[in-house]
Amino acid sequence: MISVAEALERLFALVEPLEAEQVPLREAAGRVLAADAVASRNQPPFSASAMDGYAVRAAEVTPGARFRVIGEAPAGRRFAGRVGPGEAVRIFTGAPMPHGADRVVIQEDTTREGEAVIITGTPGPGPHVRPAGADFHAGDRLAAPRRLSAADVALIAAMNLPEVQVARRPGVAILSTGDELVMPGEDPGEDQIVASNAFGLKALLEAEGAEARLLPVARDTDESLRAGFELAADADLILTVGGASVGDHDLVAPVAQALGMDTAFYKVAMRPGKPLMAGRLGAAAMIGLPGNPVSAIVCGTVFVAPVIRKMLGLGAAPAPRRRAALARGVARNGPREHYMRARLTPHGLDPFDSQDSALLSLLAEADALLIRPPEDGPREAGEPVDYIPLPRP
Ligand SMILES: Nc1nc2c(c(=O)[nH]1)N[C@H]1C(S)=C(S)[C@@H](COP(=O)(O)OP(=O)(O)OC[C@H]3O[C@@H](n4cnc5c(N)ncnc54)[C@H](O)[C@@H]3O)O[C@H]1N2
Ligand code: MOO
């Protein structure tokens, strides 16, 4: 059996970053920028007032000073003239500074008397002026690759770019397999269960930026699995769920191999998730996930999400880890890397008593996958350990 790190390397070797596509900026949030966004202008494009008040010459600002108001500068319209000695222009936030003025006195520090304005407060150091290009200059870049946040999208809009180049979303086809499965909302027979895994995986991978579709459940027969693989053929990544182990009805590997899958590995020294398989099937990468619900989501987090990130051009890196102290001691680990479902508490990382890979209710309560390296420990409360945070929307 290969290690988790080796499996991840072999998975990365199966995929390449996808091509870019142009999208309107209003649809760009969450997408991965594929080409630098380059500002086409300075921001602000002119030196601008940061406050509502009066634009004057800084050297003349003293308590009690009196100015003649010679005009007005609202945002969007520069005062046409020039501010000379003893003169002021009524100005508003965002307006271009008039020529001659280099300081704004905020209106709270003034009193207006007809055509005159008097400094009646004690103005601070000022100058309440934003120089041209204070935010960014023409030619400045927001560098790719980068997942676009709300702030990034606003910045690109300010750069005056209505469209951006982003990585195409990886198309993922998810094929659940098993005679025991029905879709949520159907009427399960007494010996049947609901196919939950595909829903969790779709949500997980779409949060990463993939476009995932659920195929009809394949039955544990050659023909049904072949039909499922056929429906998935145009995907960038085919994910099967279940039928990966050694039972008589675990047909995913034999059918995929009969269809010409070039196998990259089968079985990983991890818990849960041991019967993971991967390879190339036609133009698509294929990952065969174990059927146990927690195993499927753990493998989705540890393997599939990093593969999606590589396809999006974000590089080949494992799921980000953090470190925390153990809230309580843990026994020595066995030979497989263990991803224990745990809760982050004020006292540290607290693994659940039960680590059964069928228990979705516990996975839903977990904030973290506590990582136990092979043969690690035993470890006491307070010792630092690595974990993968489980994102909550
Ligand atoms: N003799 C052995 N038996 C098993 C081994 C082993 O090494 N030797 N490995 C165990 C491990 S570890 C796992 S994990 C499971 C995984 O097996 P499969 O990938 O073949 O999964 P299935 O047998 O099809 O299903 C396991 C379990 O999960 C349920 N399931 C399947 N698909 C879904 C789905 N889409 N949504 C919800 N639940 C699903 C299924 O009903 C079973 O209860 O094998 C162990 N056995
Ligand atoms: O490896 Mo299995 O995935 O323990 O449940």
From TrEMBL:
<dbReference type="Pfam" id="PF03453">
    <property type="entry name" value="MoeA_N"/>
</dbReference>
<dbReference type="InterPro" id="IPR036425">
    <property type="entry name" value="MoaB/Mog-like_dom_sf"/>
</dbReference>
<dbReference type="GO" id="GO:0046872">
    <property type="term" value="F:metal ion binding"/>
</dbReference>
<comment type="pathway">
    <text>Cofactor biosynthesis; molybdopterin biosynthesis.</text>
</comment>
<feature type="compositionally biased region" description="Basic and acidic residues">
    <location>
        <begin position="373"/>
        <end position="382"/>
    </location>
</feature>
<keyword id="KW-0460">Magnesium</keyword>
<feature type="domain" description="MoaB/Mog">
    <location>
        <begin position="173"/>
        <end position="310"/>
    </location>
</feature>
<keyword id="KW-0500">Molybdenum</keyword>
<dbReference type="GO" id="GO:0061599">
    <property type="term" value="F:molybdopterin molybdotransferase activity"/>
</dbReference>
<keyword id="KW-0501">Molybdenum cofactor biosynthesis</keyword>
<dbReference type="InterPro" id="IPR038987">
    <property type="entry name" value="MoeA-like"/>
</dbReference>
<keyword id="KW-0808">Transferase</keyword>
<comment type="similarity">
    <text>Belongs to the MoeA family.</text>
</comment>
<dbReference type="InterPro" id="IPR036135">
    <property type="entry name" value="MoeA_linker/N_sf"/>
</dbReference>
<protein>
    <recommendedName>
        <fullName>Molybdopterin molybdenumtransferase</fullName>
        <ecNumber>2.10.1.1</ecNumber>
    </recommendedName>
</protein>
<comment type="function">
    <text>Catalyzes the insertion of molybdate into adenylated molybdopterin with the concomitant release of AMP.</text>
</comment>
<dbReference type="InterPro" id="IPR005110">
    <property type="entry name" value="MoeA_linker/N"/>
</dbReference>
<dbReference type="GO" id="GO:0005829">
    <property type="term" value="C:cytosol"/>
</dbReference>
<dbReference type="InterPro" id="IPR005111">
    <property type="entry name" value="MoeA_C_domain_IV"/>
</dbReference>
<dbReference type="InterPro" id="IPR036688">
    <property type="entry name" value="MoeA_C_domain_IV_sf"/>
</dbReference>
<dbReference type="InterPro" id="IPR001453">
    <property type="entry name" value="MoaB/Mog_dom"/>
</dbReference>
<dbReference type="GO" id="GO:0006777">
    <property type="term" value="P:Mo-molybdopterin cofactor biosynthetic process"/>
</dbReference>
<dbReference type="Pfam" id="PF03454">
    <property type="entry name" value="MoeA_C"/>
</dbReference>
<feature type="region of interest" description="Disordered">
    <location>
        <begin position="372"/>
        <end position="393"/>
    </location>
</feature>
<keyword id="KW-0479">Metal-binding</keyword>
<dbReference type="Pfam" id="PF00994">
    <property type="entry name" value="MoCF_biosynth"/>
</dbReference>
